[in-house]
Amino acid sequence: MGYYYYYVVLMMMVVWGSQRCDGFGTFGFNIHHRYSDPVKGILDLRGLPEKGSIDYYAAMAHRDLLFHGRKLAAVTSAPLTFVGGNDTYQLNALGHLFYANVSVGSPSLRFLVALDTGSDLFWLPCDCIQCVRGLQTTSGQVDFNIYSPSNSTTSSKVSCNSTFCGQCSLNTCPYYDEYLSNNTSSFGLLVEDVLHLTTDDSQLKAVDAQITFGCGIVQTGLFLDGGAPNGLFGLGMKNISVPSILANQGLAANSFSMCFGPDGIGRISFGDKGSSEQGETPFNLGQSHPTYNISITQITVEKNVTDLCFTAIFDSGTSFTYLNDPAYSVITEGFNSQAKEKRHPPDSQIPFEYCYDLSANQKTFETASLNLTMKGGKQFPVTHPIEIIDMQGQGYIYCVAVVKSGDINIIGQNFMTGYHIIFDCERMVLGWESSNCEYISPNLDCVSK
């Protein structure tokens, strides 16, 4: 029987501070949860639910639904509500889970951009007709930088013969990116400019990478409600993504890693190909829109082994893990059979179906272990399958943090916690290695300007 000792920590992560970029070396940024104080200081509009509260988990699940549109529409049989009937939270403003404060152009401007492994293009608000120029927070107005090609001496238009230019109109290359969320899109022109990076060696050498990105003139949907208030940093598989462009320029390998520590501090590193000790499984290719999709062949809950084969997307931008049957039932019913605590009654306010009551002053509890076998035979032990919820004056419960999906299977950030995850597009493999991310500097600065 595996023992799990938990304290209530689940923070949404933001990236800050460039660290390294070398010729086939790596460069990176520290990442911090969306709920970190510096991030909330910039992105909060009217406050958010307390971390670990029942409102918090309902809001996070609702955020996942918003960002995945109809794909997770059947995630719950009842609409998510809030304790006391309070439905006034600015849920759209929860935005993406991860952000980076990146520096672009000459003179350089900083942009607090959302990181997204599910999209490819890097775009910034640019000579906007419709975009977010700032947010009114509890501490005052926060104004965002707006990019303008005419104000950067290193900016240039993307030529019509560029491989990135699908069509050309009046010597400009337009782009239009539509996202899964209803009526969420970004429209504008493709431009080139420098992305300022710093090597991660003792010399801390400055490197200016020539990047193609979107000059976002019009944003719609969630992007106007705080989903990506100051731009979006695409981390997908296509050639237009930042990791691919850096690789094509010979600055780094076409691979990046994300590390999720149990204390909420993490890191993204471009060019990181992992180590010889890591577990690996191949990406499933041949999709119309390539994603970080892998195959799972076996689920082990404690000592109960179930052979089944299904595909799932590793998405660091999704809060929780969403699974279809039979995988969902194998995991949740497996945990239920091992649980010693009384099962909590069904509650539409809680996004998780299998929850258990903790007695007063109970500090530890015993749960089943969970292990996923990936295609190729490597094991992926899930270190954090449980979440503790504060019932706000009515004690605590713990839940199996898996939600029943209406369509696609998604391995979310909660299952990646405690791992160094490698997204390797050169070898087309997902890698993982246990890590507490203790090598990460706890730099929590997060300033828009």
From TrEMBL:
Protein name: Peptidase A1 domain-containing protein
Originating species: Camellia sinensis var. sinensis
GO cellular component, one term: plasma membrane
Positions of the Peptidase A1 domain: 98-433
Gene Ontology terms for molecular function: aspartic-type endopeptidase activity
Membrane topology: Lipid-anchor
GO BP, sorted A to Z: proteolysis
Domain of life per record: Eukaryota
Coiled-coil annotated spans: none
Xref: Pfam families: TAXi_C, TAXi_N
Gene3D superfamilies: Acid Proteases (2.40.70.10)
Family designation: Belongs to the peptidase A1 family.
Record keywords: Aspartyl protease, Cell membrane, Glycoprotein, Hydrolase, Lipoprotein, Membrane, Protease, Signal
Active site: 116, 315
InterPro entries: Aspartic_peptidase_A1 (IPR001461), Aspartic_peptidase_AS (IPR001969), PEPTIDASE_A1 (IPR033121), Peptidase_aspartic_dom_sf (IPR021109), TAXi_C (IPR032799), TAXi_N (IPR032861)
PANTHER family, per the entry: ASPARTYL PROTEASE FAMILY PROTEIN 1 (PTHR13683:SF826), ASPARTYL PROTEASES (PTHR13683)
Subcellular localization, as worded in the UniProt entry: Cell membrane
